[in-house]
């Protein structure tokens, strides 16, 4: 590897302490908090609604499976990818056919035999069918040479395959290093959505449920786990030193829910629940087991359906190097280590919260998806929307003092609003048939929007009715597939005979307006201050335009006023069922009115300017006059409405001025998005100073109330921790002397005493303590990361290392990510790419360090060799998005020239266009108004 480094730091991170040699094979984590996404990264690409759906990818309907018996053999303990299998597919022919069609991806079939099943269970050989694979549709067709009459059959297929190592899909291989320095291998699975076909030929569609009996032959010193308990472990007859682990038959279930793991893992247990992890991490599994027990109890109670009526045990398994997220296999939930393992001495409050929510999310799937699955992937929101919602409901029930529910709207409802404001977004119910298109359905619509819409109807129907309706839904569709109408029927049954909904309206009618059309409405409230009446109107909200549209939603609304500020009463709703309607109220002209109490409705609300001004005035007088969740809603709505030119940005910036008296996290979380928007626009420009004066006025009093930001009081609540990190991050970012002093001193003390700071303040202390850190301090922090055996801690430390403001330190960190020296084998690919993103994400210093390093053509080539073209393109686009003045533009242009043909002309042109767009903002109405506002505020 070529090194071109300034200063005496050049070999600092490449010749690190030999202690790193003992820590090989550590794992990356998701860059943000756990993202509520299970099996694949979520693309930012918006799915068009009108794709032509190619139904040739769907299996024929003339045969259906009833049971699979799968026998696998693996030598994965050696690192070998090869595995072999035999599957007996018991099936029924329901329409006479001359072909049996199943799915197969990447498996090599050695032989196939067909048997007819007599009424007494006797198998009669029916020949050896010819088979052919359609690589496009991944359909494997067996031709028996005759028309098979209606009846039962067994198709036995002998095959072989290779464990995946380049993706976390199908049957794949991971590894870790034990305390003796030996590499140990882990075989694990991830079958959702269309990857079961990578482990065994099968009917790989969600509705085609069948029982599964699994046997796995593996080395005796390893063990195997699966959905069901082990029935017996017997020595292998053919392979000395091997055993066959036999599992009991599963209930009827979709193929994507089959799961198994082969490893040397150990477990802890409580009753019928277990947690499996590598032996040198099992001490970090206690919280996962405790949370699993509490959350399952909460869900058993909430749903009125006991998990144990269907499954005898529930296991959790932490997979090394899986990244973040998890998968809800029935009876065996798999997680990346960052989503399951918690060490109170190493991990933050955010990690603990994320683990609780992800366990609740996956456990909710045991009902929503496993017990009742979607008829087809077009209804994946019946799985993911409920799991998204119950991730917060169930974790809140299990840990009420943590107030997890406070985070739902800012982390989900407001998150869904962004992509759902595009005119090319899909509706909740959307068909797809190709594996890639099916994968694309697992997006913010399936998770965040669907959970938000379901919560809205939970509130409208009342929680008790909602629970009763779900019980009907489970009873009617258990062990089967469901469509949206099945859910509606269950909910309708629970409210028939009540006056919960307006007369003549059904659950289906109301919910279809939200599930079958894309987007969401903005409810506009225009007050008549003379007679107290209000005109309510609705139209679809677009982020970048206001255009006529025909969408009509049935909108449930409620409101609070200055004289009746009862935000907690969510028992009564009225409905807007037309484009517009005049509503009589008795609200006085000098009173504010706020709609959508606690933001339970999935829509934005806009007001006339006078009402906005009264709201802003009321918040400045007493923030607690309006519910904290509505304060967060008002900030998020006001900003996004202004960006869409639906009202004046000055109204938004005036509204935010009350924040100097705000000590709840949710409103600040909404405000953080607004402040980051303007920070990214104004940093590095002549207008930046005025903006900082504005930010100072908002955060100063709150920061002063925090006291020592480098310590953690015992009685500090979860939401106080969130608030402290947000406020102190802004204080240090804009240069508060006291913030920089505290973080610098805390880092210095940590290095001197070789004692890490408390994990709950570690990111802020390390990130901003590095502002003027010595090379010794930087190396100490690097060693903390490289020697840690905890993935989540390593992720936080990588992010902090990217905060350095010394260019040579950052370039050395980059060379570590690119490097292939044997000492650096503890860095896996995910952590290497995380290092790159941590450098450009933290500040302009990082962007300039990347530009300086990668302007060397040899280092740039090694970067591409390590990370690929896409990561270099990402560096270029991120550098462009953080380019705000002429000097930075010149740096970017010189960088593009130095990269030459390592990037495409299209990438270079897009980067320059981004910078031009950044500059043009200052001459837009929003840009001129905003900069003028900040200038006037300062002066």
What's the number of helices? 27
Question: What would you report as the Rg, rounded to the nearest angstrom?
Answer: 29 Å
Oligomer: single chain
**Number of DSSP strand runs:** 30
How would you classify the helix and strand content by structural class?
alpha+beta
Please state the average pLDDT score. Answer: 93
- Poorly predicted runs are 1-50
Shape: globular
In spatial order, strands of the major sheet run 5-4-8-2-1-11-14-13
* N-C termini distance: 54 Å
How is the biggest beta sheet arranged?
8 strands, mixed
Helical content class: 25-40%
Strand content: 15-25%
Defining key terms:
alpha+beta, 939 residues, 5-stranded mixed β-sheet, 30 strands, 39% helix, single chain, 8-stranded mixed β-sheet
Structural commentary:
The structure is a single chain. Strands 5-4-8-2-1-11-14-13 form an eight-stranded mixed sheet, with no helix packed on it. Strands 16-17-18-20-19 form a five-stranded mixed sheet, covered by helices on one side. Strands 28-24-23-30 form a four-stranded mixed sheet. The longest helix has 18 residues, at about 285-305. Helix 23 crosses helix 24 (about 870-880). It has 27 helices and 30 strands. Mean pLDDT is about 95; it is low at about 1-50. It is α+β, with helices and mostly antiparallel strands.
Protein topology:
Layout: E1 63-74, E2 82-93, E3 100-103, E4 108-117, E5 123-125, E6 130-134, E7 139-143, E8 151-162, E9 170-177, E10 183-190, E11 211-219, E12 223-226, E13 230-235, E14 242-247, E15 260-263, E16 266-270, E17 273-277, H1 286-303, E18 314-319, E19 326-327, E20 332-336, H2 349-365, E21 372-374, H3 381-398, H4 408-417, H5 435-440, H6 445-461, H7 463-477, E22 480-482, H8 484-495, H9 507-515, E23 521-527, E24 534-540, E25 555-557, E26 559-561, E27 574-576, E28 580-583, E29 593-595, E30 604-607, H10 609-621, H11 628-643, H12 649-655, H13 665-682, H14 688-704, H15 718-733, H16 737-753, H17 759-769, H18 775-786, H19 791-801, H20 807-818, H21 829-842, H22 844-854, H23 857-867, H24 869-881, H25 886-899, H26 905-920, H27 925-938
Parallel strand pairs: 1-11, 17-18, 18-20, 21-22, 23-30
Antiparallel strand pairs: 1-2, 2-8, 3-7, 4-5, 4-8, 6-7, 9-10, 11-14, 12-15, 13-14, 16-17, 19-20, 23-24, 24-28, 25-27, 26-29
Helix pairs in contact: 1-2, 1-3, 2-3, 3-6, 4-6, 6-7, 7-8, 11-12, 11-13, 13-15, 14-15, 14-27, 15-17, 16-17, 17-19, 18-19, 19-21, 20-21, 20-22, 21-22, 21-24, 22-25, 23-24, 24-26
């Amino acid at each position: 590897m070529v090194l071109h480094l300034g200063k005496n730091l050049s070999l600092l991170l490449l010749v690190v302490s030999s202690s790193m040699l003992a820590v090989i094979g550590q794992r990356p984590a998701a860059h943000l908090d756990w993202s509520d996404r299970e099996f694949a990264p979520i693309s930012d690409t918006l799915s068009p609604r009108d794709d032509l759906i190619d139904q040739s990818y769907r299996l024929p309907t003339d045969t259906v499976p009833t049971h699979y018996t799968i026998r696998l053999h693996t030598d994965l303990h050696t690192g070998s990818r090869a595995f072999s299998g035999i599957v007996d597919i018991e099936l029924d022919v329901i329409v006479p056919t001359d072909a049996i069609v199943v799915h197969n991806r990447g498996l090599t079939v050695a032989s196939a035999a067909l048997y007819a099943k007599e009424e007494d269970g006797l198998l009669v050989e029916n020949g050896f069918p010819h088979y052919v694979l359609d690589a496009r549709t991944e359909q494997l067709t067996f031709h028996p040479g005759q028309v098979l009459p209606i009846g039962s059959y067994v198709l036995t297929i002998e095959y072989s395959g290779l464990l995946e190592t380049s993706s976390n899909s199908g049957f794949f291989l991971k590894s870790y290093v034990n305390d003796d320095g030996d590499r140990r291998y882990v075989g694990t699975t991830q079958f959702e959505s269309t990857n079961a076909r990578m482990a065994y030929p099968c009917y790989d569609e969600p509705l085609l449920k069948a029982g599964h009996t699994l046997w796995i032959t593996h080395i005796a010193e390893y063990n195997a786990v699966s959905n069901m308990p082990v029935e017996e472990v017997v020595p292998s007859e053919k392979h000395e030193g091997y055993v066959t682990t036999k599992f009991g038959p599963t209930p009827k279930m979709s193929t994507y829910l089959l799961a198994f793991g082969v490893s040397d893992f150990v477990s802890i247990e409580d009753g019928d629940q277990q947690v499996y992890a590598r032996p040198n991490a099992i001490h970090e599994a206690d919280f996962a087991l405790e949370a699993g027990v509490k959350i399952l109890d909460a869900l058993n109670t909430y749903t009125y359906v006991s998990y144990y009526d269907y499954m005898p045990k529930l296991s959790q398994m932490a997979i090394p190097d899986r990244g973040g997220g998890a998968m809800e296999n029935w009876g065996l939930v798999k997680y990346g280590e960052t989503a399951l393992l918690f060490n109170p001495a190493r991990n933050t409050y955010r990690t603990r919260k994320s683990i609780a929510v992800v366990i609740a999310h996956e456990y909710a799937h045991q009902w929503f998806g496993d017990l009742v699955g979607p008829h087809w992937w077009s209804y994946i929101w019946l799985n993911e929307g409920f799991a998204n919602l119950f991730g917060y409901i169930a974790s809140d029930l299990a840990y009420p003092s943590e107030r997890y529910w406070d985070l739902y709207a800012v982390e989900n409802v407001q998150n869904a609003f962004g992509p759902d404001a595009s005119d090319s977004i899909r509706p909740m119910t959307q068909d797809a048939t190709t594996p890639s298109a099916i994968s694309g359905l697992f997006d913010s619509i399936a998770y965040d929007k669907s959970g938000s819409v379901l919560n809205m109807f939970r509130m409208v129907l009342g929680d008790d009715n909602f629970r009763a309706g779900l019980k009907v839904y489970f009873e009617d569709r258990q062990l089967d597939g469901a469509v949206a109408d099945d859910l509606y029927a269950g909910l309708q049954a629970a409210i028939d005979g009540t006056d919960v909904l307006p007369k003549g309206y059904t659950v289906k009618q109301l919910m279809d307006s939200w599930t079958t059309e894309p987007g969401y409405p903005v409810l506009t409230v225009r007050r008549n201050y003379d007679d107290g009446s209000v005109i309510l109107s609705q139209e679809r909200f677009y982020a970048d335009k206001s255009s006529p549209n025909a969408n009509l939603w049935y909108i449930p609304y409620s409101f609070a006023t200055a004289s009746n500020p009862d935000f907690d009463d969510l028992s009564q709703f009225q409905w807007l069922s037309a484009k517009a309607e005049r509503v009589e109220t008795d609200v006085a002209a000098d009173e504010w009115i706020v709609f959508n109490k606690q933001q339970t409705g999935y829509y934005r609300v806009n007001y006339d300017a006078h009402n906005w001004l009264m709201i802003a005035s009321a918040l400045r007088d007493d923030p607690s006059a309006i519910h904290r969740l509505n304060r967060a809603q008002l900030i998020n709505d006001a900003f996004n409405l202004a960006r869409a030119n639906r009202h004046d940005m000055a109204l938004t910036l005036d509204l935010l001025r009350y924040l100097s008296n705000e000590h709840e996290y949710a409103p600040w979380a909404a405000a953080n998005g607004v402040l980051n928007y303007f920070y990214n626009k104004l940093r590095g420009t002549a207008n930046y100073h005025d903006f900082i004066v504005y930010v100072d006025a908002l955060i100063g009093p709150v920061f002063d109330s925090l006291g020592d930001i480098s310590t953690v009081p015992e009685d500090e609540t979860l939401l106080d921790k969130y608030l402290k990190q947000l406020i102190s991050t802004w204080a240090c970012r804009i240069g508060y002397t006291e913030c920089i002093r505290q973080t610098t001193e805390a880092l210095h003390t940590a290095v001197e005493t070789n004692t890490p700071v408390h994990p709950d303040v570690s990111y802020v202390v390390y990130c901003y303590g590095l502002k003027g850190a010595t090379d010794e301090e930087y190396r100490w922090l690097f060693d903390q990361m490289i020697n840690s055996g905890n993935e989540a801690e390593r992720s936080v430390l990588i992010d902090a290392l990217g905060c350095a403001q010394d260019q040579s330190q950052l370039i050395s960190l980059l060379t570590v990510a690119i490097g292939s020296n044997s000492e650096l084998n503890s860095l896996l690919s995910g952590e290497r790419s995380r290092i790159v993103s941590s450098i450009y994400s933290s500040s302009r210093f990082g962007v300039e360090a990347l530009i300086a390093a990668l302007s060397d053509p040899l280092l740039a080539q090694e970067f591409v060799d390590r990370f690929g073209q896409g990561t270099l393109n990402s560096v270029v686009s991120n550098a462009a998005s953080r380019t705000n003045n002429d000097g930075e533009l010149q740096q970017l242009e010189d960088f593009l020239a130095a990269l030459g043909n390592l990037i495409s002309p299209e990438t270079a042109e897009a980067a320059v266009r981004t910078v031009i767009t950044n500059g043009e903002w200052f001459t837009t109405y929003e840009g001129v108004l905003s900069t003028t506002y900040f200038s006037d505020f300062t002066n």
